[in-house]
Amino acid sequence: MTPGDVPYKNTGNLYIDRVKPILQTRCYRCHAGLNRESGLRVDSRAYMLKGGKHGTALVPGDPEKSLMIKLVRHEGPKDDPMPMPNRRGKLPEQEIRDLERSLGAPEAPDHARRTQNPLDAPIHASLSYPFCSQ
Ligand code: HEC
Known about the structure:
Layout (H helix, E strand, L loop, with lengths): L13 H13 L1 H4 L13 H6 L16 H6 L20 H11 L7 H4 L6 H6 L8
This protein binds heme C (HEC).
């Protein structure tokens, strides 16, 4: 494990185990709560869908069109590439794939919102969405 690596828990849920910790470690500093660089928050799926100044950051089922995926891949528009995370190196390939697989899944539920109530967690953990299971 290199510094900055995210320790993965294993509850069998891709978003909770891997994607949320990636976003928390790599993006929340500038895109969560009161931090809204370019108008974007990534601390819930609804915010990612709403996006920032450049429109939606996430197009479910279409990573190619999802701005946040393009930017972490350093494949942003030529005139305004905005590689993310800003001023840091590129994310490890595995993390980018985890983001694509979970966030890019069609009609993935808003895990961030749904799991806000801890009482709901066991119910959600028992649902087997194909894009949540490893
Ligand atoms: C150190 C601060 C910082 C971090 C960390 C960071 N960003 Fe950003 N982000 C910015 C800034 C500043 C902009 C505006 C850049 C510009 O306009 O050229 C931006 C813009 C964006 C945009 C475009 C929003 C829009 O509509 O204009 C997306 C998408 C984005 N970031 C995703 C991410 C993701 C995903 C991560 C984590 C992997 C991340 N960012 C981490 C600072 C950051």
